[in-house]
Every structure is written in C-alpha cells, then in structure tokens.
Amino acid sequence: MNHRNTAAFFRVEGIVLGRGVLAASAYIAGNAKKFGERALRLGLVALAAPVHSLLGQTDRALAHRIVHLAFRGMTEDRVTILAEEYAEDILRSKILDQGVELMKRARDEGRRVVLLSDGVSSIMEPFARHLKHHDELVCNHLEFRDGEATGKLIDPIIGGASGGKWLRQYAAEHDLDLAHCTAYGSHGPDMLLLSAVGRPCAVNPDFVLRRSARDADWPIIEYHD
Amino acid sequence: MHSALSIHQSFAGRHILLTGASGFLGKVWLAMVLHRVPTVGKIFVLLRPKALRPARDRFERMVATSPAFKPLHELHGADMGEFIAQRVEVVEGDVSLPGFGISDPELAARLHRELDLIVNCAGLVDFDPDLREAMSTNVDGAIHAAEFTRRCTRARLLHVSTCYVTGLRNGTIPEALDPDFSPCGDAFDVEAEYAEVKAVSEQILAAHDSPDAEAAALAETRELMRAKGQDEGNAMMLRNILRRVKRQRLKDDFVAEGQRRATRWGWHNIYTYSKAMAEALIARALPAERWSMFRPAIVESALEYPFPGWNQGFNTCTPLIYLLGGWFRHMPARIGNPFDVIPVDFVCRGLVVSGAELLLGQHAPVYQCGSSDRNLLTIDRAIELTALAHRKHLRERGGTALERVLLSRWDAVTTDLDHLFSVPNIRSAAEGLRDWLRETKFPKFMRKGADEWADKTDDALDTVETIDKMVDLYQPFVHDNAYIFISQALFVRAVVEPEFRCDPKTIDWRRYWVDTHVPGLRKWCFPLFENKTPPSYAPRHPFSLPRASEESVSFHSDAHIDRAVPHADLGRPQLAAQHAEVL
Asked: I need a surface site. Which of A100, B52, B63, B437 has the fewest CB within 10 A?
C-alpha cells in the first residue's frame, strides 16, 4: 500500500519520551543566574504544577502558558544552553524504546512521521536530533524580545484543545488524507487529535483518554518494561 | 559604486615584509596568506634571534610546532619545507632597532627595492609594562617601520594598532586619526612627548644609580632576607637578591611613570598610550598615501582559521574568563557596555583586505576591526556566556564532585562597583577576620588554630589582592567607558573571495563563546595560568627548511654586546625587546 500522502502523528510526551513540560521548566528555572532568582522561579513552577495537572486533563494550552511564565526575564542564551543541556543530559536517557519502535514502523510503512510536543523548541529541537525515524517536529516556541524571554508562548500552542483544528490545517497544507493517517496520543487533550484521523491509537493513556478510547473502540497500547 | 576587491589579484606577485610573526596575530596572518593567497610574491619574515637561537631556527621551530600552521601542514604534507622555502624568506632583525636591525646592507637595499607592503604586527600587548619596553617595541618599532617604509621605492606600511588608542572616551569612535589628539582634550605634541619620555627615562636611570637609591635597595634587600630568615652574611646571596631588588625597583618606577603619563593624557594604560603615540608618529613621518592604520578591538580565539578555538598566550580577556571560572562571581561591569571582541581570523581577513586596498592605493587611513557597531556583544552577555561555558565544562569534566555539582552552578554575575560582595568589601572583611584572629585573646588550646586560620586568611588576601588588581585593570573597558567602534572602511568594497569576508555580523556569539572561544582558552591558554604546558603540536610530516634555501642574514654584531648592558640607553633598550611580546 502506498502511504505517500499519509502521516503518523506522535504526541512526544508519554509516547516517545518519559518526561513532561513541568520537569523541563523546573530544570531551567532552577538554574537561573542568581541564587535568589532560582528559588523564586522554582517556586513559580511549583505553584503552577497543580494548576498544570488540573488543566492538563482538558486543555493544556493555559497550563503551558502558566508554567512558562517562570522563564520571564531569563536570557535567550541561558534558556538555550540550559535547554540543550537538559535535552542532552536528561531527556536522552528518557527516550522510550517502544515509542521509537512505533515511529520506525510508521516510517517503514512510508508514512510521514510528525512529532507533536508540548515542550518548547529550545529543548525539543536538540532532543529531536537524537531521534531517528521522523520527518518533522512540531512544538511550542518561547517568545524572546531583545534577547530575553517574555514568558509567553507563541501561538498556536501545541497540546491545547485546538489540536484537531490544527491537524486539519496541517493536512490541507501537506496534502494529507486524514482518513488514512495515524495518530498516537496519551493524554486527555489528545482526543481531538485522535478523533481527526482515520487510525487513532491511545498509548499508555491517562484516565480520561483511556475511557474515551474504550468508548470509541480505539486500539490501546500499553508499554511494558 | 565600488568594484569588488579581489584579494588574489591585489596580492599577485607582491612582496611583503611581516614583523611580529611570532605573535598570535602574526602567525595566523602568515599562515592564512600562505594558505589562501597562492598568488602572493615573497613574504619576508622579520624575526629577532633569541637566546642564542638564530632567527631562521626560531622560524623553523615556530612553523614546526605552532598549531596555527596546521592547515598548511595538512595541505602540503612532506612538501611543506619546500613550499615555505619558496614563499618565505627569514630576515634576522629587530623592530626596536633603526633599519629594523638588518645588518646586511645588500639585503636591506634589496628589501627597499622590492617590497610592496610592510605589515607591522610587532607590538607589546601587556597593559602596564615597563615604559622602556613599551617605548622600544610599540613606539620605536613604529618609528623604524615608518623610516624603513620611507626608504623603500614603493612599499606602503600597514601598521597594526588597537581600537583603544582613542583612550578614555565614551560614545561612537570614528575611523579617524588626528596626530595631535589626546583623549583628555589637552594640546598634545607627540614628538615633544616622545622626547620628554626619553629625558625622564634618563633621569630615572640616573636616580637609580645614586648612592641613596643604592642604600635604599640594600636596606630593602636586608629586610627581605631577614623576613625569610636568610643569612645576611652570605655575600653572594645578598648580591643576587640585591640585583633582583634593584631591577624590580627600577621597573616599578618605569611602570609608575608610564601609568602617570598615560593617565595624565587620558589613556587607559601604557599599552594604549604607546600605541597611540606610534600612530601619531607614523602619520607625521609618512605621506598619507603610504600608510594605513589597522585597529583591531579585542582579538580573541579563532572562529574558523586555522581551526575553531585556536588561541595563544595571555590575550586580553583570558585572565577575566579564567577568573570567572573559579569562586569569584561578582564581576563589576556596567550592564549594556559593549565588549568589543573579534576573532583572530576575522582580524586577519580584515588585515588582508586592508592590505589589498593599500597595495592598490585605494586605502582608508584607518580601518577599525571590531564588532560593536555591526554585531554588538555586551559585557553582561559576555559574562553570562562565560558562566554558561564554564558550567558546561565543569559539569562534563570537572575534576571533583565539588566542581561538578557546586562550582558549575556558581554563575558569575554582573554587579555594581559598590556591591556587598565587591572585592574591596571582601578584602576588608577578610582583613577584619585576620586581625580578630590575631588579636583576640583565645584560650591556649585555641591559639594555635587561630594562628593557622589567620595565616590562611592572609593567603586568601593575596588572592583577593590579585583579583583586585585585575578588576582595576579591566575597569575602564568593562565599567567606566562605553565605546562603539565604527567599522565601515573594511566593508566599503565587496570582496570577491568569500574566505576573506570579515563581517562580524556572521558571528553567532552564543555558539562562538560557549563552543569555541572558552573551550579554546581552556585548552591553549589556561594551562599557562596553572604553570602547565598547553598541548603540543607536531605535524604528521616533520618540518624543516631545506638547507640550500638558507638566506637569513646575521644580526648586528654590536647588538649582541648591547644586550649584555640592559637599559643603558633608552634609544636601544635591547633587553626590553627580549621581553617584548607581539600582538
């Protein structure tokens, strides 16, 4: 079967990678320039954590916006270097082999493999260099002005409730037949993404997604160590 | 609209004399021209003999061991000797001597006849050296270069100076030269100043020969020996220490005099003062069509040529970066001040471009080669990038757990001069602690421990003193003054050969600083601070010049004799030249 105009969309967090946005934000905030600043920024991330978890069940866009406020005023140099360090030292060891295997399989089937990440490009781009078997990475972008982070994410925010809308737009731009596309999601907000494709699949789903996947009779993959 | 500049065509068949070839800039320039300008004529390399080693041997050793020539070695392999012999002729001489100290009149005449360009890279780059050394290399060297150029049939002089000759000023610094300029605004006559320095130097020398000075030196020597518990009755030891003390006292007086003069006219230090004098003297000695000043800003590690990160010796910001790699973290600097760093290969490309324009007679009087007006790097950004580069290294290769875990996160920060943890505050706190430990009446069993801690505090105070001096030295550049050096002349004409384009807009400071510059310093320069040897380089094919090509000429025979009488005559301070480093 020719899959030239089909793609496989992978949510990175939970499927390819065993770490999420909160941990990344905490790492960067905790390595700010001054000691007091580190405590303050880490505190912000800590305060944002429960909000992130609560909102994360439905719409992660607002949750991501809140978490990344902790970067406000950090220099682009620092964020970039720390993000590279985090990607190299931490994330590399958190790659989920089963997820990589899924990507490989999709690639072997001739699908365009698109990674969707809630993480910011400063982290995800260096991280993605360690991943083979993908064609494109779509992730969030921090806004920088005059060399400093404003704490804002640039729209559209990946991981939000507009995932389905974004996907249809992407499919139109790349001449994709969504009915033959595959999507792998792991969290509640991925439902709209999965609903938009012909071959959805839940991987290690959280409670919300698991229930929906069962209702919709979507295949569920569970990783086992 | 200017036509594009072809480096290959401009240099075709042109003969060049290079001074300062053993320095950081000179070596990279020489290697780059030999490598990338195949059309160039002969390059005459002026080198001093040193420590009984003739210039030719020094040159041979330099090419054989300096990593700057690595790309050339890789390109020519076993034929490198032949290639160099065809392109380079070593001339034994000394910039601090009239006529460059070339003793063979035939060779001098041939050079006067054949040379098209003189590139004067020789210079002493210490900020506050002995005034005699600065005058000898930087000022007398420039005078002799101008005089040598004047004697040549058609040669022009490209003199390497520094952007900072403009002294303690703020704002935008144009590419211009006024020989009567002094940064403080007072009327300045460079020739009068030069004569005054000579006269004052004679007075200092005479004062040091006086019986009073002799007695003071002897008293200081005895005091030193007593402090160290040495036997004052040991005549030989006394004589040796006395000689050292006298030399140091003389040097201190010359440094103080140089600093006084530099400050009086508004320059930062003896280096910028002497380089400014050199520019003014050349401008007065030669007609405008025969010279160009090339002013690099802070020359640092190579971005690309000879290879990323190449650096040599103690360059301008090396001590600063070294300092910020330790526990010292509050660097006084003004946020937003430009820190005008430029990689050495960009400087060499600029030097080639300006040389090409000078050869064509289409030159500007001054070429400033900096980054501040085209791709600004601020001091606070440089300090943060330094901290991040150290962090990267320490996390990966820190020697101890303390370095890997704590020091790597001990980021340097930009602070005000009066910050709570400023060096003077740390010093006074340490002095207070030491005095308290010494003066408090502790119980007997604690006395020994208190003395030990007082001694340790004393050692720490020595380190604080060194840091304080260094911070003072950099203060005019990173805190007190903010300059933007206009660098336009180098970019008026497009350059045909892409390998000679030197626009700093292409530099990604983050990648350069973290991945290239600081690792380069760590590899090539930091070992020198730690009394270690930087990695040695040996080409795959051992290099030597073919014996038949020996063309170097002997040095002034009397010059060797003069070297044995240091500082006898300020006009010929050969010992000073022995210590001279080159830019």
From this structure: B52
